[in-house]
Amino acid sequence: MEHMVLKKGTDMPDESGMVRDDRFLRREYLRTLIPVMFSVLAGTINTLIDSAFVAQRIGNDALAAVNMCGPLYQVICTLGSLLAGGASILSSQEAGKDEMEKSRVYYHTALFLGLVLGAAATAAGILFCDPAARLLSQGGELTGYVREYCFATFAGLIPVVIAYIPLYYLQLEGRGREIMVMMAIVIGVDVVLDWVFLYLFDFGMGGAAAASVLSMAASCVYGFAALQGKHSAYRFDIRLMGIRGWRELVTCGSPVAVGNLLDAVRLFLLNALVLAAAGAKGAAIWAVLNSLSELSLCISSGVPQAAGPMIAVFYSVRENSGIRILMRLQMKVGMVLTGAFVLALLLFHSGIQALFALPEPIFLPLLCLGISLFFELICSVWSSFFNSTDQILLSNVLIGIKRFFFPAVTALALAVSGGWLWAFLPLSGVLSVIGSAAAVGWKALRSQKTSHPLSGLLLLDDYLEREGLVLDFSIEPTEQKICDASERIKVFCTRNHMDRKGTNRLGMAIEELLVVMKEANPEMKSVDLRVFALESETGIRIRSAGERYNPFEMAQDGEDLFYLGVTMLQNMAEEISYSYTLGMNTLYLSFSEKGEERSRME
User: Is the pTM of this model over 0.85?
Assistant: First the structure.
C-alpha cells in the first residue's frame, strides 16, 4: 500500500477542479458529533440526577458524601477510558490500513483487560472499602454514607469499566443512533432506579450507587448487543481474547489517564488556593465555575473525540488532506459551539447566581471562564490530534501544560501577589496555547534537518504531496464529472511516467466504480478519491457515505451485465479490499507495475 518505496514524479500542473473539499467529511463528522457530545454530557447529567435524588430524599449530608465519592468514580471511568480509548485509536489505524483482523484483536484485548482488571479492582475495593471510605471522607462524620456508596460502586465496577468499549467502537462503526440509545438508557434507567431504590425501598446511599452502576450495566448490555449485528466488524470471538498488544493499547490510552490524573491534582491545589486567597465566598464561586467548566466538556472533549477515529484512519495511510479538513472542521464547529455556550453563561449570569445562592455577582468570573474555554478548545483539539497520530509523548506534554502547569502557576502567582484571582483562567489559557505552540514548533524545527520535514502546526509528513505522487480530490458523481475525473487522472498518470496500460486501468477503475456506486446510492452527493503512484504499484482509494455497499461483492453474487466492468477490474487488480468504518464505504484497489493480473479479496 502507501507505505511502500516511492518513485519520484515530475511537478504536477495546477489541475482545475482537482481539489479536496469538505462536503463528504463535514457530513460524516457532524453526523458523529452530536451523539459523541451527548455521550460526554450524559455522565455529567447522570451525576446531577443522582445528587438531586439523594439531596431530596436523604439530605445535604448525603449530597456532600456523593461529592466526596467523586474521585473514586473518576478513577474507575479513567480505567475504562484508558482501555477503550487506546484500543479504538489502534483499531482505527489498522482499519485504515485494511488490517481488520488486527483491528479486531485490539477490541478483544480491551474487553479481556477490562474484565480482568475490573474483577481485580472489584475484589480489592470490597476488601478495602472501609479504609477507602475513611480516606475519601477524611475520617469525618460522613464516613458511614461514603462507605455505603463506595461498597455498591465497587460491587458494580466491572460494567462501568467495560461500558466505554462498545461506546467507542460503535463510534468507529459510525453508528451514532446506537450511541444515543446507550446514553438514553444510562439516564433513563438511573432516574427510574433512583426513585425505586430511594423512595420505594428506602435503600439509602447504597441504593443511589446501585442505580448508577445498574444503569451503566444496562447500557453496556445494549452496546455489546449492538456490536453483534450482522455486518459489525467487532462481533465477539473467543479466539481473539487475550492480552496481545496491551502495551500499545495502554500507551495510546495514556493521554486520557494523564489528563484525568492531572485534573484531580489541579482541582485539589486550586481548591486550597482559592479558599486561602478568597475565603468561603470565593470557594463557592469557584465551585460554580468548576461545575460549569465540567459541563463545557461536552464541547471541548466531544469535538475532538468525534474526529479522533477518522484522523487515525487517515493518518494510517498518510491521507493528509483529509486530516487537515477534519482539523479545520473541529475548530470551526468548536468555536461556534463554545461561543454559544459562553454567550448563554453571560446572558443568564443573574439566574446562575440565584440558582446557587451566591452572595456576590458572578458576571466577571463567568467572563473569565468563558474566555478560557476558547483556549481550552484549541489545546484539547491539538492534544487529541497528536494522540490519534501516534505522537503520545507530545500529546501528554500538551495535556500537562494546559491541565496542570499553567493553571497552577498563574493561580499561585495571583494569590501570592494579591491580584484578582479569577484572571488566572484566561491568563493560563493564553500561556497554555503559547506553550503548546512552542513545544510543537520545536519538534517541527528539528525535523527540518531530515529528508522528511514535518509541517509546522500538525507535524505531518507531506512528502507524497510535494513529490506529486498522490492526487486527492472530491467530485460530485455525475456522469460528466466522472468522465472529467478519469481524464484528469490520466494526466496525473502521465506526469508520473506510467505506461498506457496502467493509465487506462486507473481511468477505467474510476469510471466503472463510481457509476455503479452512484446507481446503488442515488442520494450520494460527494465522493473523496485518492490516486497514488508508488515504486511497485499504482492505485486508488474511494471513500463515500451511505449504506454499506461493496460492488465487488455484488459482482460475485450474480452474472448481471451491469457489473461486467467491475468483474474485469477484479481480474486486473493486484489487490482489492473493502471496509465499512465510521459510516464510510472505503474501496481500495492497487495495480502492479509489472502488470500481473490476479485478484485478492480481503
Answer: no
Distance in angstroms (rounded) separating the CA atoms of residues 163 and 84: 9
Joined together, the cell numbers standing for residue 476 give 460530485
Per-residue HEC secondary structure of 79-132 comes to HHHHHHHHHHHHHHHHHHCCCHHHHHHHHHHHHHHHHHHHHHHHHHHHHCHHHH
Task: Please name every residue paired with 533 in a beta bridge, in sequence order, or none if there are none.
Answer: 538
Record the cell numbers describing residue 95, joined without a space: 482499519
Smallest Cα–Cα separation from 477: which of 513, 432, 426?
A: 513
Residue 525 corresponds to which amino acid? K
CA torsion 391→393→395→397, rounded to 10°? -150
When pLDDT is cut at 50, 70 and 90, the band that residue 597 belongs to is very low
Map grid coordinates 460494567 to a residue: 159
Distance of alpha carbon 153 from alpha carbon 587, whole angstroms: 46
Contact 543, 556 (CB under 8 A): no
Task: Give dist(CA 435, CA 440) in Å, integer.
Answer: 9
Give the strand order in the sheet containing 537-544: 470-475, 527-533, 537-544, 584-592, 575-581
Query: Taking a C-beta distance cutoff of 8 angstroms, is the pair 529, 540 a contact?
Result: yes
- In this structure, what is the dihedral angle of CA atoms 85, 90, 93, 97, given to the nearest 10 degrees? -150
Query: Phi and psi (nearest 5°) for 360?
Result: -125, 155
Q: What is the pLDDT of residues 200-243, one digit of tens each?
A: 888 888 888 889 889 989 999 999 999 998 778 899 988 888 88
Annotate 190-254 with three-state secondary structure.
Answer: HHHHHHHHHHHCCCHHHHHHHHHHHHHHHHHHHHHHHCCCCCCCCCCCHHHCCCCCHHHHHHHHH
